[in-house]
Design brief:
In the N-terminal section; belongs to the PINc/VapC protein family. The chain is α/β, with parallel strands linked by helices and 624 residues long. The chain contains 18 helices and 32 strands. A hairpin with a 3-residue loop joins strand 27 and strand 28. Helix 3 crosses helix 4 and helix 11 runs parallel beside helix 12. It starts with a strand and ends with a strand.
């Protein structure tokens, strides 16, 4: 009797079973090289079935050594194109061809393979796959009613997070460090449950990392080389809530029923965001809305009337395309984190779908800030009109997001009116923050809070200083005396140039900035020079109106990255420096501890610096 086993039969250990039972005793077993290649590839990727198949091949070698069978490897290894299309049957076809060539019986546990082989006229022995029923996982013993997650790692005692939402503690739940053999046994049980149980599935399977959803548990398994040892992290929700359990439930319920909205549920890790999102999903479903979720991995606790989707072909963008065909009333997006997530969230919201997104943020305003730069500023209120901030499992604040054309907080000139995003406290209906564009930069300003150095102040000082330095050759310092008044101190030699003939130059600057500017010399400054100048240093420095090409300081070569323009300044950490292009002042900055100056791309400073680089101007840096 001659047998050609396929990959499924080898993985399931059915060849050695047939020999041990006597059904294939003395048979000639021809193992295709295509099977070996598949098993090797799976084992290299850390997939357990590959290791199971290799163990079966070792068992066949032992049977051959005992003269129970004759063992031979036949055929060729599949080409790369055949391996990549294994799911389409290319490797199975190679195995069938070998069975036909050697007039052998094809042994398989694959129903499709067996039917195709019979259709080809081959002799086939189909063996039903043996399914081991998993009643439960051994690691469940580490969980009690207060346990949110269990953390198991080679060489470390079992640990767990226990307590209530907002009051978790990380503590040992075992006395002895875990061995690699113990972790390996638990991993095999987890992966088996994912394959065979109707209550489990594999969410992610990559080299070194597998994520499994089994019942209420989301289990991440990490292996070397991705991790420095085998590690199992199992997470389970400890609380299932309803919307009525929360403060502000009536307000939130009214908002959701009024019309489809864009809602961000924000909070720090472990604050209870996903728990609230699950309660919102349940409420919406009970209110006769069609509700879907977008999750990767899927771990929201929702009822069977809410369908949970993950990333289609690895991308949430594809999931969104599918959902737009289904047209749900509301979609719960857990978690909105990367730029792609915010883009998908915005696209679906602007298409008319109600969206509830879960976002990590340490403050409610930070959730809105994460939209800046990812969504056009004026479109933010159309994408998100409500922010719900969660702390310690409770709703702490609800904000309304609105647009209004007005003079921004901190400015008074009527001609500075512009579209302003107002973040309103829903309970008091008072503005808490304003977000607007000022001189090509986005500013977030707390409303009603006093600050010595607000975002507007910093930008105003920067813009005034830049305008003055276009005329002044020496040092200058700016003091804000109110929301629309500033005093500028310059060198005696620069006073006439800055003011201009008949005050024309300073008047032009005032009109451009909408701020009244009083120009004085340093001798007129109470207390003299500050010493902590935001300007360039002493009066001997060359800057501002110097356009004759002379430079002073160290020549540098800035690097432009995706997000920053980086100026290397090794050995100058902590120093304040002045950046120039062909001797013309650009800006002043402090060198980071890493020995570099970073300027965010898109800012006014970065645009000037990039323009200087594009024009091949010599960039120099001098102590300020």
């Amino acid at each position: 009797m001659t047998i050609v086993p396929d990959t499924s039969a080898v993985i399931d250990g059915r060849v050695s079973d047939r020999v041990e039972s006597g059904a294939a005793d003395g048979a000639t077993v021809l193992v295709p090289e295509a099977v070996v290649a598949e098993l090797e590839s799976q084992a290299n990727d850390g997939i357990e079935t590959g290791w199971n198949g290799l163990a079966e091949l070792e068992a066949l070698v032992e049977l051959a050594a005992d003269d129970r069978i004759e063992l031979e490897y036949v055929g060729r290894r599949p080409a790369e194109a055949e391996r990549t299309s294994a799911g389409e049957g290319a490797v199975d076809a190679l195995i069938r061809d070998l069975a036909a060539e050697h007039d052998a019986t094809l042994l398989t546990s694959d129903r499709v393979q067996s039917e195709v082989a019979r259709a080809k006229g081959l002799t086939v022995e189909y063996l039903e796959p043996e399914v081991r029923v998993v009643e439960g996982l051994d690691i469940e013993r580490f969980f009690d009613d207060e346990t949110m997650s269990v953390h198991l790692k080679t060489g470390v005692v079992p640990m767990a997070k226990r307590g209530s939402i907002g009051g978790m503690r990380f503590e040992a739940v075992g006395e002895e460090p875990l061995s690699e053999d113990q972790l390996t046994e638990w991993v095999e049980e987890i992966e088996l449950a994912a394959r065979t149980s109707s209550e489990g599935f594999t969410e992610l399977d990559r080299h070194g990392m597998t994520i499994v959803q089994y019942r209420d548990y989301r289990i991440a398994v990490a292996r070397p080389p991705f991790a420095d040892g085998i590690e199992i992290t199992a997470v389970r929700p400890i609380a299932a809530t309803e919307l009525d359990d929360y403060q502000y439930a009536d307000d939130l319920r009214e908002r959701l029923l009024d019309h489809q909205r864009g809602v961000l549920v924000a909070g720090a890790p472990g604050a209870g965001k996903s728990t609230l999102a699950g309660a919102v999903a349940g409420f919406l479903a009970d209110s006769d809305f069609s509700v879907k979720t977008m999750e990767k991995p899927r771990d929201l606790q929702v009822g069977p009337d809410v369908t949970q989707y993950t990333a289609l072909d690895g991308r949430m963008e594809n999931t969104a395309d599918a959902l737009l065909m289904v047209r749900p009333d509301y979609t719960i997006y857990d978690e909105v984190r990367k730029t792609e997530d915010f883009s998908v969230f915005a696209d679906m919201r602007l298409a008319g779908v109600g969206m509830v997104g879960v976002v990590h943020a340490t403050r409610a305003i930070d959730a809105v800030g994460r939209l800046v730069g990812r969504v056009e500023l004026g479109m933010i209120p159309q994408v998100v009109d409500t922010v719900v901030y969660v702390e310690a499992g409770e709703i702490a604040t609800i904000y309304d997001i609105k647009t209004e054309v007005k003079v921004p907080e901190g400015l008074v000139e009527e001609d500075l009116a512009r579209p302003v995003i107002r973040v309103m406290d829903a309970e008091t209906n008072e503005p808490a923050y304003e977000i607007y564009s000022f001189n090509r930069q986005v500013v977030t300003v707390p409303v009603g809070e006093e600050s010595d150095d607000s975002g507007v102040d910093r930008i105003a000082k920067q813009e005034i200083e830049r305008e003055i330095r276009s005329a002044a050759r020496g040092n200058c310092e700016v003091e804000l005396r109110g929301s629309n008044t500033a005093v500028v101190y310059v060198e005696e030699s620069d006073i006439a140039t800055v003011i201009g003939k008949g005050g024309g130059r300073i008047t032009d600057i005032e009109n451009r900035l909408g701020i009244d500017i009083d120009v004085r010399t340093f001798d007129e400054r109470p207390g003299g020079r500050s010493g902590g100048s935001s300007g360039s240093g002493g009066g001997d420095s060359s800057s501002g109106g110097n356009t004759n090409g002379s430079t002073s300081g160290e020549i540098v070569t800035p690097e432009i990255t995706a997000r920053h323009v980086v100026i290397p300044m090794e050995g100058h950490a902590g120093n304040t420096v002045e950046v120039q292009a062909d001797g013309e002042y650009l800006f002043t900055a402090t060198v980071s501890r890493g020995g570099e100056v970073q300027v965010s791309r898109g800012s006014a400073i970065a645009e000037e610096l990039e323009a200087a680089i594009d024009r091949n101007r010599q960039v120099t840096v001098a102590p300020s």
